[in-house]
Amino acid sequence: MILLGLLETGSAYGYDLKHRYDRLFGLRKRLAFGQIYATLARLMRDNCIEELAAEAGHGPERRRYHITDTGLRRVESWLFTPDIPHENLQSNLFAKTVIALLIDDDAERLLDGQRHAHLERMRQLTSEKRGADFATAALCDHALFHLEADLRWIDLISARLRDLRESIER
Amino acid sequence: MKTLACARLLLAHDRTSLLRLLGIVCGVAVGTALFLTLWGFAQGLTTRTERATWPDYATDGTAGMPAGELTGELSSDQIVISGNSAVLYSSLADHFLDKRIGVVSIAATADSTVAVPGAHPLPGPGEYLASPAAAALIAEYPVEALGERYGQPAGILGDEALGSPGSLLILRGMTLEEIREQPDATVVSSLAGKAFSTSTFRIAAIVGSIAILLPVLLLISIITRLGAAQRSETFATLRLIGATPAQIARLAVLETGVTSLVGAVLGAVLAWAASPLFAQIQIDNERFFASDIQPSLPFALGVALLITLATTFVAWVRALRSQNTDLGASRELMEKRPGLWRLVPVLLGMLALVGGGWLSSNPVMNLGVSELLFGALFVAGFAAILIGLVLAGPLLTWWASRFAARFSRGAAGVIAFARIRQHPQATFRAVGGLVVAVFVASFFFAAITIAHVEEEGDGRDSQQGGAESSSDTAGASERSAVGASPDLLHASLSGGYTVADMDAVQEQLKAADGVTGVAPVYYHERPTATEEGSNTEGEASGGAEAGPSEGIAVLRARDAAVLGIPEAEVPDAPWIELPPRYLPSASVPEDADPEASIQAAQFADSSELRPSYLFVGYDGDPLMRERIRTVLLTSSLRLAMVPLTIAEMRDDGATDSFVQEYAYLANLGVLIATAVSGISMAVSTVSSILDRRRTLALMRLAGMPHTTLRRMIAAETLLPLLVVFLLSAGLGFVVAQLLLSGLTAGRRSVIFSLLDPTYFVVLALSLLLATAAILATFPTARRSTALSVTRFE
Amino acid sequence: MNSSAPPSTLPGIPPATSPGATPLITARDLHLAFGLTEALRGVDLTIRSGEILAIMGPSGSGKSTLLHILAGVLVPDRGSVVYNGQRISTMNEAERARLRLAEFGFVFQFGQLLPDLSALDNVSIPLLLGGMSRREALARSEELLGSFGLSSCKDKRPPQLSGGQAQRVALARALVAGPRVLFADEPTGSLDSLSSEQVMEMLAATVRGFGVTLVVVTHDARTAAYADREVIVRDGQIRSGFEL
Fold first, then answer.
1. What ipTM is given for this predicted complex?
2. Which structural domain range is residue A62 located in?
3. Which letter does DSSP use for residue C189 in this model?
């Protein structure tokens, strides 16, 4: 989905995509070329992208890809469907935020949406806690604190949106 | 809401709050007592002058007719009076040792109906009544030293004739023929003293009183705000919960009202009870009758009530006007920007002064009404300016900090000025008292400068109490020290004597007990101009006239030794000219040459010589001097004045001026106003520190390097303070100028070159104190976010 | 855990009603500026009777200002606030004060307990302001403190209480006059995790039990989790589109 999002910013060659991905998201691990080709093939099959000018004899990295309308819709719904709140979704959320910024979409809105989802979940957990036994309450509190950490992060990112935009466009 | 219960709970619930209330009570008591005492003194000064000057205004030539014009007998509703009480002019008084005694002579019919203060019955010819202090003095010494001068003691002069319990006054009886010989003998039908010789002085006195009393009221208002910050926090919480402004106002009124009432009544009673003690304080070398300065109990309580009403009213207005603009502790109480209306009272006051000045030079209606009008304008204008200064203070501070912020360099400066700009009222409140003191000091010091002008016109030495240029005196005494001994007795003669008469007198006097030498000095009028300085002796000899042509003093060469002139300097001639440096006047001309040699006197005939005065030498013992003085006074010599030593003449000259007396009082006034304002400032500083106690404690917790920060801020805050001080000092000068020129119809104005250096010391001290006060109230720590975590202390 | 069950009786409160759909406070187009700074730039909000609403947002967003306007402490420059049919944004200071005393309670973060008075005296203040005799006010206050499990604290001064205890005393004071709406501004702001939980548990349970509406401003998510819904205030406007 990230690649699709990157393509929304403009058509690009395969190797361009890899470089951009690595630059933005490859802090933990870089994407292997094989993975990119497989993903691109799948996207082609799902009609989300199309080739522009097929230069015969070259691998995917030399081919130029362009996003379709279907692809566009998929990116939108991906961006604005909040993830199921659980710990360790930062990377996903981060990616969504970056893409949203790149395509000049309303990153604030997506963060708000996620925040709302988080708070809903926290409300559920808080109700569950009431009258529960020690173990259950402890479990709920554990989840609550992690969700709170997420929200802190969301708040921070929200506040730093402008800085983020500038660093991406450099 | 049960107001009393709520008030007790919220404002008087524990020891600290009760202590605070007690502090306010004490402060208001002290302030009220101070106010009433100062008022008492102001009243006392006028009352005692009015009472004591009854002889002076009878004989100054403005009342009745000169005795010389009296034809026929004296009727029972008239008396003839001469002499002086020595209250206004000590040079006309009798002298004994270091004291001045007023001597008044009267001649009246046996059945006289004229009321003479303190004299029941009137002394007959040859008798005298003495004030209690004078009687005691006479009894203390041999009669030939003092008592003989006046005649037979006939009783004590009552207090209604005296200014103070220690007044020395003699009332002696004379026959009509005797009194007619006195040059100032006047026929009058009634006697009354005056508190002020002109309305100008009365206005000046009122203005001076206002300048001293208003700072005391300012002090009282500052005291009632003790602990105001804590109270306003409490009130803010109450307002949040749902107390209406009226409820809050009721609480504030109750608190201020009760404490003010108790304190003010306490202070009033204190002032009333302690006034007999204060009456012992000497102002102008005289104490007071207790009744002169003691406020009547109803009056004192009335003042207490007024003060209470004023402070309560202000508290009520403040409580109603306070806005609920604080949102928890995240934002401080924001002050409103000071409005331009604050300048109005000062401007109106200036307008009134200018108007009064114009009116006094251009009387549009009859003099009495005109005087009343411009007097009222001056007084009201001055009061408006003084009050207006306190009102305009925050606005001036705000402007000054905006102006100064443009020049600030460091971060501390920016912080400091932003601080002041946000809280101009709090800043000014800390130093308001001193700004008033600077204004009052400037006003008084500027006004005093005209005293120097006064005495230059009289040709007397400048020696006023307090403000002084000591170089002048030193120079003068040096010059006269070159001449005759200051202990030499000098007796001015009335006219009508010849040289032969003087020779006879000289023989008689030399035979008297204790006299070592007698030197008659004559006045020789010369048609042409002579050596420098010879016209001064015309003024100096008092009784002798200063004619349009110049003359010189002449004496026999053999008498020169009496004056202490070394034999070597005396030329070989029967008569010599008396050089200026031996003249009895303390004011020796500038161009007098101390080294000039003594000339022989040239004249055609001894009939050209007019006996002017006598020098009488003695062994230097003061009591002997008094005996000799008594001899001179009781002899048949016609004296123009009481015989005086040169030293006495010099000292008398120094204190003989209305303006000088007021200059002395003005210095006193500056002292009092500054002291009161200093106390005001100390109180408001302590109050601010108490308010900021929590913040200051937190500052220390946060480990702020307050020494360095404060040093930086100190340097930066001096600027706006200096601006405000300069403005108020400038205002003081301007007001003094307006008042002086207004009261004297343009004849007088402030002379800046004569400004006493002490003034600048006062200014510098005030500036330092004010800076310290502001620093103590600087809540720089409020911005620190760490503090938001701490709850209470 | 030290928190005790919510009080069984609360003076002056009518019997519990379920949180219905009836709007209790309606705010329309609120604007307020302090000097040149615009704190609120057009806020619409509806608060329903019996619900718990959390107002969240970054510092300086204007959420405290919003709370103060809803509670009738501040008057907006533009816009209206209607409480229970009465337009409180146009009332004068005295009228709003009377309304606050009768209908609202306040639990704020700072200095809302008078530090020189005992806990008992603090709680009794709203009753005294309303004209009750001191004896009766103290009796009621003591009863309420007891039902909160704070009897041991009643004679202590706020500086001598722990954070959690102090906030619970503040809660008692807010409830003692039987208000319909409770306004809380960062009630857990200065508290640690356990105390926060205790205070919010007590707060939520109490208001739910008696149909008291609660509006709480907080930046803390776990505090907001006790609410039925949240609104986000950012730059003086409500930015969340997720109202029910």
1. 0.87
2. 2-80
3. T
